[in-house]
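Feature request disguised as a bug report, sorry. It would help if multi-protein outputs had a clear separator. Right now it looks like this:
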Amino acid sequence: MERPNDKKTLGAFVDSLKVRIIDLYIIRKFLGTFFFSLVLILTIAVVFDFAEKIDNFMEKEAPVRAIIFDYYANFIPFFAILFAPLFVFISVIFFTSKMAANTEIIAILNSGMSFRRMMWPYFISSLVIAVFTFLLTNFLIPHANLKRMDFEDKYYRPNSRRVPVMNIHRQVLKDVYVYMESFNPISQAGRNFTLEKFNDSGRLESKLSANNVRWDSTSGKWTVVNYYLREIRDDEEIITRGSSIDTTLNIKPDDLSRSPGFVGTMNYKELNNYIELLELQGSDELKLFLIEKHRRYASPFAVFILTLIGVTLSSRKVRGGIGMNIGIGLGLSFSYILFLQFASQFSLKGDLGPMLAMWIPNMMYLVVAFFLYRIAPK
């Protein structure tokens, strides 16, 4: 049975979460500083990127409209989302340090508002940025990345991604394996092709070998040239030879020559479907796509952790001014990015799971955030 004191406590808690004038003031400062720093950094990034690539644009005669709308209109959101947690951290450090220097934080706490309650508008702003980041990363940025990469292939580094792939080993279906010594994505043809099929007990049922295999875009099938087919039925071996034969494989030429940036061109649904396909194929690329999947969840969550660290670091008024806080903030933010890159490489090259790799930096900095929160002035 619910007691009256419980109702009063719940009512007081709900009332404390109502957005007040001071909350709107902090939210406006948070989001305003965030978007201002974002625009400032993006402007610098675009200027440096254009200065680096202008010779290529002129050499390839890239249209001005394509440079603006196909490249930079898609480069800007990609770059913004990539470093959104860093911009959040720097923004929180900057404007909170200024508030502390102007004794605004002391005034807020002396008015009766607890430090925990003061965090409420910060987390509202973080929630807005985190949701914004998650939606853009999973639904808008992939399409923008595709257009940007198409522009780069055409006007900046043509055919640099379309290089021959060597020693391909793929599982295309359950108990069906494909081997190819090399594959040329331009001619869409491969050398020394082998297709093996096993039964449920692991015994070889058939083996199709050929010197060459090529993709027929009209029929959507692979044509095997000068093939040698060995079939085993009831302990009887049947061998067939021929000049060419069509075979349907659960794999396409693009699957054999993906560029590293391809992982960023898939939206939420496409990424999950492709991961299921790679799991079926037993592809070595699976870890790369799992890392991308978990990164898209971990990155928005990092906004809350870095916000908490930023507030607890910069809410104290220090004699050296805001420069010390900004320096510490930059050091922590860059160390976060460094840990994230190390974890990604450990997962790709080692035995560290992709999910654990993407969440380890968040867990480490969450511990740091709680420690700083405990010692923050309240």
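(second protein starts here, but nothing in the output says so)
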Amino acid sequence: MTLTVVAAQPPCVSYDVAANAATHAATVRSAGARVVVFPEMSLTGYELDAPAIAAEDKRLAPIVDACGATGSLALMGAPVDAGSGRSHIAMLAIDGGGARVAYRKMWLGGAEPGRFSPGSEPGVVDVDGWRVGLAICKDTGVPQHASDTAALGIDAYVAGVLESADDAAVLDERARRVAADHGVWVVLASFAGSTGGGFAEAAGRSGIWSADGVVVARTGPEPGAVARATLG
């Protein structure tokens, strides 16, 4: 079977979960894809002090509704509670039945360890017979992460990322390495525009790479663009 995937880089309003959820929902409705992937911390912006979001947060309802209407699975970035005043940088999986935490970032960078705890294990979601491995930003630059995720028997490696415009080449380098090492499709949804953490100009340039490392879809740096491909 084939799997239609969109890597989206929507505009983001820092800290405004309701506004960002509305944008995510509109993106899902217009994507026409079975899986829609969003960047790291896409629901809050890369604001390391943003409050954690619970899977049952009512502000996510527009996304649940959009996924129910389109039959899509949306994968998006948010801080979630880890207990004892700590949080995880996480990937939420949302469909018409609701939201759940699908994966917690394992490899933290920069100032992240000051607030966040690393996740303890790789994550995979099953979609229409496809095994989709999950990653968040720095994870993609750690060969062990891709190896440990691939060991779970994946068909695609999907990540929400945030890089500065000056580091845009990193996206292609990492995607090609994962594809070459593990023979899987790679999907990177990359933050566009500006956000916290010193990212005055994020890279954008989301993309989808085939299992032999060829770019099959790519955006520019602008917020609102999407990359779309049918994996098969």
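Even a blank line would do. Unrelated, but nice: The chain has a mean pLDDT of 98.
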